[in-house]
Amino acid sequence: MPSAETTPTSTHEPDLVRPTREDGVAARGSELIGGPIGRLALLGTSWWTPVRIVALVAIGMFALGMVQKAPCYNGSWFVGASSQYTNACYSDIPHLYQGRGFADGLVPYFDKLPGDMKYLEYPVLTGVFMEVASWLTPGSGGVRDQQQWYWMANAGLLMICAAVIAVCVARTHARRPWDGLLVALAPAVALTATINWDLLAVALTAAAMLMWSRGRPLAFGILLGLATAAKLYPVLLLGPLFVLCWRAGKWRQFGAALGGTVVSWLVVNLPVMLLAWDGWSQFYRFSQERGVDFGSFWLILAQNSSDPLSTETVNTLATLLMLLCCAGVAALTLTAPRRPRFAQLAFLIVAAFILTNKVYSPQYVLWLVPLAVLARPKWRDFLIWQACEVAYFLGIWMYLAYTTSGDAHKGLPPAGYHWAIGLHLLGTLYLCAVVVRDILMPDRDPVRRAGDDDPSGGVLDGAEDAFVLGAAARPPRQAVQFEGPRVEWGKPQPAEGSL
């Protein structure tokens, strides 16, 4: 029987980055499961590969999130507004089953809805996802039974999305599969996964990032276009990718990514645009006309002002702030001493959109989780941010409990909710700050300190600069000498010892 050192995996496994060797928080946390894994255990053949472990942990955490919704599933969704907030188990899914015509067999975008919302206010691919879940919902029984089945059908489909996200993150940085555990164990993911349908767009975006890391720009574009057909935010990734390709001179690859995005988005949207324009455009009208809402700093300003800004003014100011952030990211990309990693800029641009937007629903944290892990795979910083997001998750439901409990005022008053919003904003800004620091000081970047250049960058990984500005255009200074073995950027380095 072959020894562990002679198994086929032994030539590849030592190249993996071990989080319990380079991350103190991960090392201490591993004591809960018996401590860091041993070298011989890692070298031996086993079904328990890092990617499979990450996928199973993601499914397990998703299941715990479903258990957390049990009070609502067993009654709080149906007996009154306040109890689903005090139990922090609210979900849009069962309410919209009836409210958006799925219970009555109405076709999204084509059939008008009763009430003020004339058509389904979601992008087309999300509408398709909702419709497929309604096909899986038994038509027998009362409305309450159907709502429960509809939530369960959606939860099953969303669980697949959650597993896909964790696996894609684990495989994007080839030498860092264990970073996928950050996604799988993220408490905010478990708590918010079944509030809405955002996981579909997040899964497609994570798959697109994986394709770009493998040097497949057309596949990246196709998946990104599909993600944008499910939620608007993924198209933002084309901005930093454009500037990175500009700096590296990779115009052909960017053209393939852009073309794939446009074509796949049109394939999904064009039929509905042509046959049901009013229904198709409902999402965009609703986004424009929606007033200042939960979770944004605009809400704090509005609730503390005797003369709040109009929706049109907020739209204009939010757009200007976002454009300023885009300009800042572009300047950072072209002037940084080393070309930033794609995942770093993807995280920053989506975070900027979240911070400047007029609404922050609690499930929007899902947009950032995989990008945050790829941008800054450091357990301490990630958990600090997650703690802020969990606090906000509890804060919004307690605030809604306060506003819906009548004179009883059970929950969190507006002033307390403003503190919860502030905590969410500060946590996101903190993570943005450490990512910017990593860009300006590449020796602080955990990915590059481990010996890689841009493992999520595909053709950008190890590429020469073709266009830079400012300090980046000056001749490089003498490299700083670190203790330990010599590291060649962009090339996997062997690691010895335990996890």
UniProtKB/TrEMBL annotation:
Keywords, in A-Z order: Cell membrane, Membrane, Transferase, Transmembrane, Transmembrane helix
Domain of life: Bacteria
Keyword Aminoacyl-tRNA synthetase: no
Family matches, as Pfam families: GT87
Entry GO MF terms: hexosyltransferase activity
TM ranges: 47-67, 119-137, 149-170, 182-212, 218-244, 256-277, 314-336, 342-361, 382-402, 417-440
The name this protein goes by in its record: Integral membrane protein
Stretches for region Disordered: 1-20, 476-499
Protein family according to the UniProt entry: Belongs to the glycosyltransferase 87 family.
Main location as per UniProt: membrane
GO cellular component labels: plasma membrane
Subcellular location: Cell membrane
InterPro entries documented for this protein: GT87, UCP010361
Record's bilayer topology term: Multi-pass membrane protein
Composition skew (Polar residues), residue ranges: 1-11
